[in-house]
User: Which sequence fits this backbone?
């Protein structure tokens, strides 16, 4: 397996902070590990409620969230996120889902990635490239 280029830190001197919210543990762990290996700082949460606690107390460059989750799903999380003070809102939001299509997010400033996704596409999107 070839080493992935350190795609995030080359663009800026600071490591981007990414919040990954995904209820499926193997997926959450795999995404977190991959993003960390690409040079970002990653915090992960099991559901929207846990993720919202992180959003209220820390600053993230990118929020990566599943849409279908127990406790608080991604849709409710996005609504809560919009109510946060600007200083606590992530710069970019990427929603991921295997059950929904991008159309469910119409009108929201959210990028969308369908599961199962290509890991390179995920890294490109986190790095700022549009899908």
Assistant:
């Amino acid at each position: 397996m070839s080493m992935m280029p350190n795609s995030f830190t080359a663009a800026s001197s600071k490591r981007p902070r990414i919040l990954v919210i995904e209820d499926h543990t193997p997926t959450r762990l795999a995404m977190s590990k991959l993003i960390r290996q690409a040079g970002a700082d990653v915090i992960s949460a099991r559901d929207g409620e846990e993720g919202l606690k992180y959003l209220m107390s820390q600053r993230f460059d990118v929020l990566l969230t599943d849409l279908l989750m127990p406790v608080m799903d991604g849709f409710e999380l996005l609504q809560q996120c919009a109510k946060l003070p600007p200083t606590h809102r992530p710069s970019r939001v990427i929603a991921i889902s295997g059950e929904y299509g991008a159309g469910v997010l119409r009108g929201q400033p959210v990028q969308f990635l369908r599961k199962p996704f290509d890991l390179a596409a995920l890294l490109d999107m986190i790095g700022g490239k549009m899908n």
Notes: The CA atoms of residues 123 and 129 lie 9 Å apart. Residues 1-6 have pLDDT under 50 and may be disordered.
